[in-house]
User: What shape does this take?
Amino acid sequence: MTKATLTGVRARVARPCSRPAPHAGSWTGAGPAAITGCARRTSSLTGDWAREGVHTSAWVSKRPMRPIGRSIDASSWLQPTRSAILPCGAAKLRSEGSTRCSTREQRARGPQRSPFDRTATERPFEEPLSACSLGAPALGLRRTYGTVRRKDGKQTGTCGATADTEAGGGPSRRQEEVLDAVLDLLAEGRGALTMSAVAQRASCSKETLYKWFRRSRTGY
Amino acid sequence: MVSAIADGLLTATVRWQASKVRAGHYDGERLDASAVQASLEAFAANWLKVISSRTSIALNRMAIGHAGSARATCGGIVLANGRFAIGERLKPLLEAARDAGLLAFEDAEQAFRTFFGLVGRDVQMRLLLGDRLRLTEIEIARDAARATQQFLTLYEQGKAPAAAGRMKFNHRKET
Assistant: This one.
């Protein structure tokens, strides 16, 4: 990825958005899937982010946010090294059509659908789009998988469905996948059941696990 | 298996597993004997299916394994969000059946424990101890129907539980 492209991204981001509301599934579908192949797919990744940025820059710019935890800044997305790019568990994901970095075996298997690769109607999280779900790298923001914190330190929108669990509702579809991952690990009984193992199996960060499944104040 | 996951995640996992056991839908105001029987059978079959799943066995084994250790909260979480939560889910049905004059009991908790025992019998204990007990859908449905019938025999209106129990005891003596 060249610097010129990055500049181009920023230029597009800075342009006022003339299109209607962002397509909600775009980040959900493109982001993590693109992460997988981003070591060698920076062009398409940047393209996805750029499109997101164009659509959403106005919205994001009104809400300055500083995420915490494991994060990736914009420049790291453009480095051609996998280790600098991949967040926890993302290495396990395989993007649809990421033939450039696929092994022969993966190509033979055909494109696989990432658990994050959803359409707008399948969007697992009910939260409104927030900075963490928009074109954060292209905007120079940091990206995390669970928590976004404002500059004043107050926690704001998350990419998860913590509100559901806090409100006593059932888990979201994505949370159900995580809980099923715990049960699978338990049933396999191969090793210790740790937060790291769960995070790796469920392709999410430990921070997200702690955020989503913190113990209820009412206690059990 | 050693467990080092946060209590919140463990709680959510147990709740998720227990949520698969449902009492079914029923109309509390227009409850009849067949509806009660169908709901109890559905609940029993549901519960048998869940407890015989390998995930449930693993979860219960882990909780039992930690019961005597410093991490005894694991057992408490499974008890509160498994057994007791399921009980609270079925009791409204039992109480609605009592209000409708279909069942007779004084304590819903006692009635539920009886039903629980009739359904579970030795199945869960054997599974936890490693018995390769294979329960097919047909067997589960048959066991659920049998347990429900036994429960209704014990608690149906006009037949006090004590009397029903005495009758059963006499029957065993005769045989």
